[in-house]
Design goal:
Shape: globular
Helix content: 40-55%
Number of domains: 2
CATH superfamily of the largest domain: Regulatory protein AraC
CATH class of the largest domain: Mainly Beta
Number of strands: 12
Largest sheet: 6 strands, antiparallel
CATH topology of the largest domain: Jelly Rolls
């Protein structure tokens, strides 16, 4: 349809054995122009050192300035737009909280799931002056990635554990302060966490509704209102993102990969992969192997996130 904007999906690959990826340096000193909003396969944290403008979060927007920390869950459309003629300096962290929590709580998976449930599933902009502990730990992870000193990986792991605690506490505070705004996303949070950790299973919408303790019709309506897509579309998006992860790590046969991420039918997997990515799994794997920073492509499935 004419005039429609399609968000850009930016896929990032974590370094082997790590749960953090930092985008640092002069490349991120620029005048930001949103154009199309985009979303990622990992949780994004941005830190603004100087400059100002607006961060677009789906259909909403908030101003930013020096010291702003952006907290953007995976799969949520967003974009940065600098003031006219203004130059800004941002740096970004992409964090695999699911993998990190699974490692930290490998002997207590239930507790690990509870931690993931308590991390905000909605985007937030906070000021470092008001949240100094959060600011300090974000800056520490950025600096560890910049300096690459001995025991860097271990240091970042420690900081990430502290960061988890800060995000859980922040979510608790924000939920109290903005109860009306957040109560809907809070209602479907158990379903979002369940999809992220059980994407390879035969997920029934009825089971997701039961996990949220609401009726299935109300769950479907609430999910679409919050996420701008249906539960099934969201499940397919998560599965295809996981497929991209697997394709980076191993040369899977298509039928094996389809089963690995929860599809009983190879044709259904290939149809959804091409619908979301725009290429077949084989084409995407060949293309992504030549671009190790990130692979971008247009997604048509997330029509609810289009303007």
């Amino acid at each position: 349809m004419a005039g429609k904007k399609i968000e850009e999906f930016r896929y990032y690959e974590m370094p082997v054995g790590r749960y953090d990826l930092a985008l640092l340096g002069d490349s991120w000193i620029t005048t930001y122009r949103t154009g199309e909003q985009h979303f990622h396969n990992f949780y994004e944290i941005g830190y603004c050192y100087y400059g100002g403008g607006v961060v677009f979060l789906g259909e909403n927007s908030q101003p930013y300035g020096a010291g702003t920390i952006s907290l953007i869950p995976s799969n949520f459309p967003h974009g940065v737009h600098s003031r006219e003629g203004g130059v800004c300096r941002w740096e970004f962290l992409y964090l695999d909280f699911v993998g990190f929590v699974e490692r930290c709580y490998q002997w207590d998976k239930y507790q690990g799931m509870k931690v993931l449930e308590q991390i905000a599933q909605f985007p937030l902009l906070v000021d470092s002056e008001n949240y100094p502990r959060l600011s300090n730990v974000v800056r520490a992870i950025l600096e560890e990635n910049r300096e690459q000193k001995v025991l860097n990986k271990e240091a970042v792991g420690g900081y990430m554990f502290v960061l988890l605690q800060e995000l859980v506490r922040l979510n608790e505070r924000m939920s109290r302060e903005h109860e009306k705004e957040s109560m809907h996303i809070e209602k479907i949070r158990p379903a979002l966490v369940y999809i992220e950790t059980h994407y390879y299973e035969d997920i029934k919408i009825k089971a997701l509704a039961e996990a949220c303790n609401i009726s299935e019709p109300y769950f479907r309506k609430l999910f679409r209102n919050c996420m701008k897509v249906s539960p099934l579309e969201y499940i397919n998006t998560v599965r295809i993102q996981k497929a991209c992860d697997f394709l980076h790590k191993k040369d899977y046969q298509v039928n094996e990969l389809a089963w690995q991420i929860g599809y009983a039918s190879v044709s259904t997997f290939e149809r959804n992969f091409k619908k979301i990515v725009g290429q077949t799994p084989k084409q995407w794997r060949l293309k992504s192997s030549t671009d190790r920073e990130f692979v971008t492509y247009q997604t048509k499935v997330l029509r609810g996130w289009q303007e």
